[in-house]
Amino acid sequence: MRIDLSPIEKGDRVLCAVSGGADSMCMLHALASAGVAVAAAHFEHGIRGEESLRDARFVEKWCADNGIECVTAHENVPQYAKSSGLGTEEAARKLRYEFLSRTAEELGCRYIATAHNADDNAETVLFNLARGTGAKGLRGIPPRRDNIIRPLLHVTRAEIEQYLADNAVPHVEDSTNASDDYSRNLIRHSVMPVMRDINPGFAEAVSRTAALIRQDEACLDELAEGFIAKHYAGESLPIAELNELHSAVSSRVIRSLCDRSLEAVHIDAITALLAGSEKASVDIPGQTVRREQGRLYFNAESAVEPWDVELVPGRETVIPQARLVIRTELAVKQEEINNKFKTYLVKCESIKGTLRCTQRRPGDSLRIAGRGCTKTLKSLFTEKKLTSLQRDSTAVIRDGAGVVAVEGLAFAERCAAEPGDEVIRIEIKKY
Description:
The protein is α+β, with helices and mostly antiparallel strands. Helices cover 38% and strands 22% of the residues. Strand 16 (365-368) and strand 17 (373-376) form a beta hairpin.
């Protein structure tokens, strides 16, 4: 079985997301059998009642019997979805990945492994194709995203079932997998068998195709980012040079500089601006794009006045532009903060120069505590689907070395404190 161990180095510990189903049990057993230091994490969604609790007990017992550390979380996803205004699937994903990230940090795991396989990848490509997608939707599931790895991505479901049988590894079945009420299940039960009749190696073929598309996309994205690095200034681009690009590259330049993933109609509207010469603009979700004096301006009109204020311990700072009150004080870290990303404990020794609160700035990025990766503020804002107004209203705490914290979103790894450290406590509140 072609399990991918390439990202894992000697001494790395891997947290396996284990539902108890065939795929995740195969992954957990295979990684442990390969000598990888593993731990297991099981997220119980509170959706399927006793069956869901049965799955949690199964994973806990199997791990205990096999000497594998296991952490289980129980959440009421439907209740959280209702209170947060999210769909059930989106709410479950959000809570699940927050749990996995938190647990990986607590257990000292470098990677989080999920059990997506080749059939899952093929089903995702078909699902995206049915909805209508560009090349990005045909890339399928990436083998790796930040610290999340997918060791079974090139393994078929049939190979997984054979592995479980050969190694006497038990698993549980999720009864919802038998239902065709979900689009993905309908593809799995009705479309995939037909495709395998045409080509028994259909899942593997899709995996190869998706890998080739990812390569092409990476190349086009690199060309687009290179163009932006060379020509982007004053939140604008020169129209003449943009018009010289192939549309496959120029469309990616536009997407990269806009606040959210755009539909083709929005790209077409912006592209139409390139053909004119007079001053003109187009409104797209979250922002305005303007043509003026031979340049294309992004984030052309901000509804929030800029600010830049120093944060002094013991002083309360009011920022009316963002309706924020920021309180700072000297303290000693004693316990973890539960009010995540609204209250920060900044290690005093880590601060370079003075602390300031500003809006976002071009090129802002930080290595995020608890995530083990570096992110630009733009990518963080995109993940949260913030509008241009929301982005301009988000407080960014920074010092002479860069970003320290982003209101409601992230905290810099370099500023994290340990119990007993002297800290500056920063509390951000809306009014």
